[in-house]
Model the fold of this input.
Amino acid sequence: NKARSFGLVEPLMHYYNQKTFIEAVSKCVDYLNFEHDDEQEIPKAIIIAMAMIESDNGTSRFALEGNALFGVRTWDMNVPHLKAYRSLDSKWGIKKYPTKCASVRDMIHILNTKPVHREFQRDHRVDQCIDQ
Done:
């Protein structure tokens, strides 16, 4: 990986309030941006806002127990996951991750590749061309 070739390592995401949560997610996004071409970089503000809302600033049960900052669902019960307390018998769960930064990596991948986000992908790339 490009970041590792520069001697960079995935940042640990330690935080104790909203400000430090924002800083932690920001460092993770900066690190992950080394892995992507410019057109695949998602604006940091979007990722931070999504993580803040989806995980209640990293304090949700899914964030604390499963490093899941975005509530990404999986229907593959072989994938590590957590069940919502009200949906213990559901056929889906919230994906668990080895680190919180890994959940950010997955969300960037989802935004860049899933067909449901085609309009975002198109608009995001147009905006980048305009900015340059």
In short: The helical segments are 2-5, 18-33, 44-55, 61-66, 100-113, 118-131. The first helix runs from residue 2 to 5. The beta strands are 73-74, 81-82, 93-95.
